[in-house]
């Protein structure tokens, strides 16, 4: 059975994303592991050391009580969506979220990580990245990020952004496997600046590899890469965008932020980050 890791802070953003985790689990016959990570904050006073253990015990107890109350809420969400048959296990860990997500995803060999994302509140957070984009970068599992304003709709059309380089073929195969489960169509979109010659554009090879699949290929000449992508999403009723996550390269030249990070903050459809 496949495994989906669902980090949660039990916020409304997280509960909204849980519906996507349930739908994905049902489609691929997977179990969900929910993960709640809490941190213990040390008091900023030097003269309360004798009370530290008592403070930590109180914080741990409070977090456990909150956890105990919230776990049944996730089960109710499953029941409300007729998905109570999906196997769900729950993990409570004290530590740091990104570190624990990376560790547990490796330990359990998870296939997907599904989590909600709030986006950013100011420019500084774009360049430093938020929790979701850090997990995208550090985990080898495929990450599905669900923006807070995103309401679940069936996955009928998936957009895959590409430069038609050969190293995009394997990630596209992963997206194709998911699209076959959802019986959805894939649009591959390449946006490139005009007046530029690309010698590494293997669109013909892409068409040959995926000739018998429900995949369409589009190339657009424009300097406004993000604008073209957002416009394509709106005009074609895209339900999910899939991105080959790179640590360096073409997409990261846009304001020194990878395309997946930028779109996480601008698009109200789920974003699939594929390594």
UniProtKB/TrEMBL annotation:
Alphabetized InterPro entries for the sequence: Rossmann-like_a/b/a_fold, Universal_stress_UspA, UspA
The record places domain UspA at 1-147
Q: Which family does it belong to?
A: Belongs to the universal stress protein A family.
SUPFAM superfamilies per the record?
Adenine nucleotide alpha hydrolases-like
Per its record, how is this protein called by name?
UspA domain-containing protein
Q: Name one Pfam family in it.
A: Usp
Domain of life of the organism encoding this protein: Bacteria
